[in-house]
């Protein structure tokens, strides 16, 4: 190791993680970007290794302008929300004879935890999160299914929690954990890939 390199301490890594959390809350990082940069920061062995995760992130706070997503409604229709969504504490999804797709891969979370409440009647609701984000699904489905798909890898320390609470009658409600390598895949490709077991090959 070169003499001008200094080994990173636990405190150094913790400070970098805290900074990344602030940038995530400010809307400068998506969940996927946060997960990737967090993993790099935690693996840093020198202080120089902590520079790339914080690259291009300004010190000044920027107030996001985009209105937060709070409620999605589908009645005899199909609703898809994705991209750089702003999310606060809760999102409500109500589907009746329709379907909702909520893609959180590029979303920005402004709190430590996000609760998604889904109500489905003769409907389908699907939520997509990047691997490494702690996410769980619970609730009651009558005449239908409630499933979690994808690799349930250990969450990145310090990552936000996504709670998915579901209630349905004749409904199919699913949580999809999307590999980071599939950033550019469409939702249809994600479902097909996980359904075919392609995600398991990435763990080897």
Task: Give the helix/strand layout.
Elements: H1 10-26, H2 31-42, H3 51-54, E1 71-75, E2 78-81, E3 86-87, E4 90-96, E5 99-103, E6 108-109, E7 113-130, E8 134-142, E9 145-149, E10 161-178, H4 187-195, H5 198-201
Helix pairs in contact: 1-2
Describe the protein in words:
The chain is of the alpha/beta class and 204 residues long. It has five helices and ten strands. The chain has helices at residues 10-26, 31-42, 51-54, 187-195, 198-201, and strands at 71-75, 78-81, 86-87, 90-96, 99-103, 108-109, 113-130, 134-142, 145-149, 161-178. The strands form two sheets. Strands 1, 2, 4, 5, 7, 8, 9 and 10 form an eight-stranded parallel β-sheet that branches. Helix 1 (10-26) packs antiparallel against helix 2 (31-42). The longest helix is centred in the first third of the chain and has 17 residues, at 10-26. The two termini are 31 Å apart.
Q: Which range best describes the helical content: under 10%, 10-25%, 25-40%, 40-55%, 55-70% or over 70%? A: 10-25%
From the spread of the alpha carbons, the general shape counts as elongated
Please tell me how large the radius of gyration is. 18 Å
Order of helices and strands: HHHEEEEEEEEEEHH
Structural class: alpha/beta
Counted by DSSP, the helix tally is 5
Number of strands: 10
Low-confidence stretches: none
Q: What is the first-to-last residue Cα distance?
A: 31 Å
The average pLDDT value, as a whole number, equals 88
Largest sheet: 8 strands, parallel
Residue fraction in strands:
35-45%
